[in-house]
Design a protein that fits this description.
Blueprint lengths: L14 E3 L2 E3 L6 E5 L7 H13 L4 E5 L3 H11 L6 E4 L4 H9 L4 E3 L8 H13 L4 E6 L5 H7 L4 H17 L5 E6 L3 H11 L8 E2 L7 H17 L5 E2 L7 H14 L7 E5 L10 H11 L7 E6 L5 H5 L4 E4 L4 E6 L2 E7 L3 H27 L10
Parallel strand pairs: 3-4, 3-10, 4-5, 5-6, 6-7, 7-8, 9-10, 11-12, 12-13
Antiparallel strand pairs: 1-2, 13-14, 14-15
């Protein structure tokens, strides 16, 4: 019997953002947004590369002016990750970046003026195979909807979404994704649930303006977690008042927790208590810091005592069970070393890295022999 709480994935149209598939049966992608001045090309390129290095599939860049669009052109020529241009109101900027090879346009059709302007943008996007992202936000609802509903509601978000969708429907443009964001978790979840059965396009999930690193991660995990367990969601962004690199890390943590996607180390660690035989907290923090560069999926357990330790350690690739002065190291379910506690971090790091290399080699051989997914697949 399966222990999964996941409902079947919502069936959607599949679109491509650069080389990243969104929707359909594609893995759920993780993205973030730069917070540098786009006109500072060097700083923006550096941040994009930092975001990509921790696993980002897509990066969004704000393009508020024609000058920023020129900077965007230089930026896109220096990075390999697919880029979304975030544009508001000015349709000419959308046309400008479309010529420069943008991978997706984040622009709301209803906010860029007449139908003729929308038609120009859609025509350019269609000719260049560029998808569009519609982004509805509780903080920027149309004035008449604010008056109609009195305050932002899930129903107001959905009604706003259909206004923008209607423009694209009239132009027979189907390659778009949509987001319905609020800082209120309940409102956001309700809005996605309302819209899900009414359209076939993929959803970009997020809790907007979620807060700082801790509170924002909690709100995002609850909101997006609820939707993902219901099969709703095709790409996600964790919006934090923090370094964008942290958004990617939390995003993958959410997907790993739901077993929707694996990347990097899944570190199982006890919360520590009076039974612990070594400093679990500092050990885990040090391991996380040292092993951030590892993207290969691997399960590791660090448990501070012998009560729960053996059971957890036998279920992972590398496990450690705390003991007085010396702890037990398990590999693939078998105990094979007693380790002096002062050597825990160094030895575990070495063992984990060796195991990762062995896993890479095994996957490479399978790829060569059975034509399975390549080792370098972004969606491991």
């Amino acid at each position: 019997m399966s222990n999964s709480i996941l409902q079947p994935r919502r069936q959607t149209r599949k679109i491509l953002v650069g080389n990243v598939p969104i929707g359909g049966d594609a893995p759920i992608s993780v993205q973030s947004m730069t917070n540098t001045d786009t006109c500072d090309v060097d700083a923006t390129v550096a941040q994009i590369k930092q975001i990509e290095a921790v696993g980002a599939d897509i990066v969004r860049v704000s393009v508020p002016t024609p000058v920023a669009a020129e900077a965007f052109k230089k930026i896109s020529n220096q990075v390999s990750v697919p880029l979304v241009a975030d544009i508001h109101f000015n349709y000419k900027i959308a046309l400008q970046v479309a010529e420069y090879g943008v991978d997706c346009l984040r622009i709301n059709p209803g906010n860029i003026g007449s139908m003729d302007k929308v038609r120009e943008v859609v025509s350019s996007a269609r000719d260049k195979n560029i998808p569009i992202r519609i982004g509805v936000n509780a903080g920027s609802l149309e004035k008449d909807l604010q008056e109609k509903y009195g305050e932002p509601t899930a129903e107001a978000l959905v009604e706003s979404a259909f206004r923008h969708i209607d423009y694209l429907d009239k132009l027979n443009f189907e390659d778009f994704k949509i987001s319905l964001k609020a800082s209120n978790v309940n409102m956001t979840v309700a809005a996605y649930r309302l819209l899900a059965p009414q359209i076939e396009q993929p959803f970009h999930l997020g809790i907007t303006e979620a807060g700082g690193a801790r509170a924002g991660a909690v709100k995002s995990s609850i909101g997006m977690g609820l939707l993902l367990t219901e099969g709703i969601g095709d790409t996600i962004r964790v919006s934090l008042a923090a370094n964008p690199v942290e958004e990617i890390k939390v995003g993958f943590d959410i997907l790993k927790a739901l077993q929707l996607r694996s990347r990097g180390i899944n570190l199982i660690a006890c919360p520590s208590c009076s039974r612990q035989e070594f400093d679990v907290i500092s050990t885990v923090n040090e391991l996380e810091s040292r092993l951030e560069d590892i993207l290969t999926p691997i399960d590791v357990a660090v448990i501070g005592c012998v009560v729960n330790g053996p059971g957890e350690a036998r279920e992972v690739s590398i496990g450690l069970t705390g003991g007085r002065k010396r702890s037990l190291v398990y590999e693939d379910g078998e105990m094979n070393e007693r380790l002096e506690n002062e050597k825990i971090v160094d030895v575990l790091e070495q063992r984990i890295r060796s195991k990762v290399e062995a896993l890479k080699l095994s996957r490479k051989r399978k790829t060569q022999n059975n034509k399975e997914l390549p080792l370098t697949s972004k969606f491991s």
